[in-house]
Write a structure and sequence with these properties.
Helix content: 55-70%
Strand content: under 5%
Number of helices: 5
Oligomer: single chain
Largest sheet: none
Distance between the termini: 55 Å
Shape: elongated
């Protein structure tokens, strides 16, 4: 396999819309380490063809292919952790609104808000049932 470019070239490829993304922590290491694998002639030809079409070296093409699933997984973990905070935030907002409505000078306001909420929920549920 051909030697892969150094870190500066990797950043240049990224800036030029290359295969690597700037968020890829795996690809942004300061030193490239050689890794050798033995594959069949068919796989070697396939890799050569794909790398050639991408306008990059076989090493870079394989390295990108190995890094992408790791980055995708990292992004999925981030989204899951962000979604896990939604119930907590909703609980806070509900409590804050309840407190504001309880102290509001117009004591009827809380009832009006609850009635509007219930009407909105019933409309939403009936439209979901119709789908």
């Amino acid at each position: 396999m051909t030697a892969s470019p150094d870190h500066r070239t990797t950043r240049a490829l990224t800036a030029a819309g290359g295969l690597l993304t700037p968020q890829c922590k795996i690809c942004q290491s300061s030193a490239n380490v050689p890794l050798q694998a033995y594959v069949s002639g068919t796989i070697a030809a396939w890799v050569e063809s794909k790398a050639s079409r991408a306008g990059t070296s076989r090493s870079k093409w394989i390295g990108t292919g190995l890094a992408e699933p790791c980055e995708r997984r990292s992004h999925i973990d981030y989204l899951r952790s962000d979604l896990a905070r939604v119930p907590r935030k909703l609980t806070f907002v509900t409590c804050a609104l309840e407190g504001l409505l309880a102290r509001h000078p117009d004591s009827r306001l809380r009832g009006q808000v609850l009635a509007a909420f219930q009407a909105k929920v019933s409309v939403s549920e009936s439209s979901e049932a119709g789908q």
